[in-house]
Amino acid sequence: MEVLSCSTKDTKELAGTIAKKLKKGDTLALYGELGSGKTTFVRYLVEALGICSRVQSPTFVLHRKYGFINHLDLYRLKSVVEAKNLGIEDILRDKDFVTIIEWPKLIEELFSDRTICINFEHIGENERKITIHNFN
Q: At what angle are helices 8-21 and 38-48 packed, to 10 degrees?
């Protein structure tokens, strides 16, 4: 599935569509360069799931929780061993949470077949091409 987002409103609508199909135990792997809209998408997704929390990038703390959402940012990690030491395997297995991971490339070997991969790509100043894989 490929979506062209020309505004944050478009991104919010996409997040709402995805939220309707998510189940606890699902993992979302978010790819894209800095500033491509990953954290904005997470903010709208959390809102669409009915959770009232201020969503912030977890770049410096690595892991934030919002209700039944685990939000991780692995940008600063250098190896899968570092991720494992943080308990990533337990987080990915937790069926009581939806897990959202920004910069997930490092741990792709740990993904289940229920992982939904979403790529955010700059097209223009306010435009993003958002490609979603494994979203049924």
A: 50
- What is the SS3 assignment for 92? helix
pLDDT interval class at 59 (50, 70, 90)? low
Confirm if 22 and 94 have CB atoms less than 8 A apart.
no
Domains of the chain by residue range? 2-133
Question: What architecture is domain 2-133?
Answer: 3-Layer(aba) Sandwich (3.40)
Three-state SS at 107: helix
Beta carbons of 28 and 118 less than 8 angstroms apart = yes
Reported pTM: 0.91
